[in-house]
């Protein structure tokens, strides 16, 4: 019986290996759950897990707690040292960036948006960013209605806001945190509801320091990582926590 189970998990591993190497399961794609694979192959979850662990040892798949198994891929490394679009970051990683507009509408600003952007009406654009045809991020961008009044859905589908707004940008403040993906975003990103994501909030300012864009980005935790360069700082003459007085 043990011999049959050993042979079976290797058979399952061989089939899954073929799906990965043939491109049927593309890099970064979430695999069917262990339960689904167990039903598909008429095998126990223990046997399926052994097959997946074998592929993990070969570097073909990876697993993350609360997320599941996915085809191994190098995460897109996004630098925090410069103001850049998602498309530029993906292109730097050798990926083909695409965008799909999900919503384009002028709406009343929420109290939070009114406080940040200083406008009662805003343009809201929600989109799905793809890397090599696979879901990479759900992004929602708001800008004051007066800045976006001449923009069309096709404009924002073709180009990023940074290229469309007729203002000079000076920089942005970005906040990054961990979160659990919502049911709606999970469907778009092709991940289980409640699985870990990185949630980024960015406020982009014009040359006068006025906020002109507010955006929220949701990334599956296994698809990207953020990198920041920390320059060496000369040690302070004063000991930490002390203040020199005359």
UniProtKB/TrEMBL annotation:
GO MF, one example: DNA binding
Domain HTH gntR-type: 6-74
SUPFAM superfamilies according to UniProt: Chorismate lyase-like (SSF64288), Winged helix' DNA-binding domain (SSF46785)
Key words of the record: DNA-binding, Transcription, Transcription regulation
CDD domains cross-referenced by the UniProt entry: WHTH_GntR
SMART domains documented for this protein: HTH_GNTR, UTRA
UniProt record, GO biological process: negative regulation of DNA-templated transcription
Keyword RNA-binding: no
PANTHER family associated with the record: MANNOSYL-D-GLYCERATE TRANSPORT/METABOLISM SYSTEM REPRESSOR MNGR-RELATED, MANNOSYL-D-GLYCERATE TRANSPORT_METABOLISM SYSTEM REPRESSOR MNGR-RELATED
Protein name: Unannotated protein
Organism field: freshwater metagenome
